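Re: the request from the purification team.
They wanted to know what the chain is likely to look like in 3D before they choose a buffer screen. I agreed to run a prediction and write the result into the notebook, where they can find it.
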Amino acid sequence: MNSKEADPESNGNHPDIRGVIEQQLYLLLRNKLSGAEIRYEPYEFEHTTEDGKTEKTIPDFYIRKPNGAVTIIEVTAALWSPANDPKEKQKRIMREAAPNTKYVVLYRHNLTSIQSKHPEISFFGSRKIDPDELTTK
């Protein structure tokens, strides 16, 4: 995995999660994945293209389950279509920088589906949560 810590001070206990969608997903993950390490934007991934250009991305969530399995999640409110993938660059970087790591992009339709199954979560139209409310229990 070709990565470095994006925020070495981040310990996951008091995440500074900027976006409402990311905050809501963090709360859901924290409640559903008991015992998992869930960190917000802890790593920057990069790779160098054939022409020598360095490309970087910082995915939203790093999750390590108690069994050691790692999943990295990127969240976007953008719409996906076969003709237009707004996260194609990030996906390419992750394929190159972390080819053996499970990487998932959650688009608007994924978030809508999750929200319909979890009415306690509101990705769209929620207020921003005070960081103190996100403190890991």
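For the purification team: The longest helix spans residues 20-32.
Please add any questions underneath this entry.
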